[in-house]
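Example 3.2
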Amino acid sequence: MYPKVKPALARAWRDLQTVQFGVTPAHAVVLGPVDTATGALIDRIDGTRGMDLLRTEGAAMGLPDGQVDGLVRRLAAAGLLDDATAGGPRAQAVRKRPETLERLGPDLGSLSLVHREPGGDLRGVAARRAIRVQVRGSGRVGGQIAAVLAGAGVGRVEVLDGGRVEPADVAPGGIGPDSVGRLRSEAAAGLVRASAPGRAPRAAEREGPETVPALVVVAPRDGLAVWAPDPALAADWIAGGVPHLYAGVLEGTGIVGPLVLPGATACAGCMERDRVERDPAWPRMLVQWRSAHRRRAAAACDLGLSTAVAGLAAAHALSFVDGELPASTASRWEAALPGLHWERTGIRPHPGCPCAAATLAAEEEVRE
């Protein structure tokens, strides 16, 4: 074991015997009492020394037997300790890719705060490399989402879209101006390759069936398909148990969510049934809107807003593939120009939807 105090958390002394690791409340930890000699030892727990050397240096500093081991245990229990050798075989495979580690340094720091166990950061990166995510759409929102996911270490990012790149698809961080006129699928594949840190993972580093993505991000160029998602499009994902997240911009309104967990949370069919019950004119208007969108060439998709939506959606997608349930789970977040106040709307399962999420929700209520 080569213990290392997590460098992602800034350190400061609150008083002569209390150390605070971290600035923001979400991850800050206060440790005490800590005497001066022990505080000096903390500076040496940097991943370059094994336990034997740390014990020797601790004894030279006048620390009693067992105090070094006790300190390491306290740091580990507080989620403040990393280990330069931990994480398992897949983490070791990532350690052998220095170009990947250099690019993902900030991501490793972030993952070390979420995965508090020693080696959790590299284990998280290794897990991302083994995952396949599919992005449906390569416009201003979808292209940037794909680039962020690939750049954050997701091993396989597949972008599905038809037609050729138009000038309106171009966005900083997404499809570039030199791709105008190319097939969208080819331009998006090139964007993913250029964004990825290092080489693609080998087959041995992958996991799960090749045909089933761990997550589908639905980010079509037509924002109406996110505001009012088509249940028919999601039918195969519901049947196959494939989680999917909606994200897009419609008429100056950014939308992130819901993240649908088939059979557990509300799906596109639930949303459609709920809207029809609340507004009987909804089906009639939806047909007209969809027809108008097919005819209309331009969309109201502000670049700043689309970038914000892409960033938030990518962050939620990464949170999910990292093993957490983000705030878009069973919820939709919306922000409209010009104020851009993000507002949450909970999405409840509909009892008449064949996805059966309402049955599970009712059973959970009974248990509670």
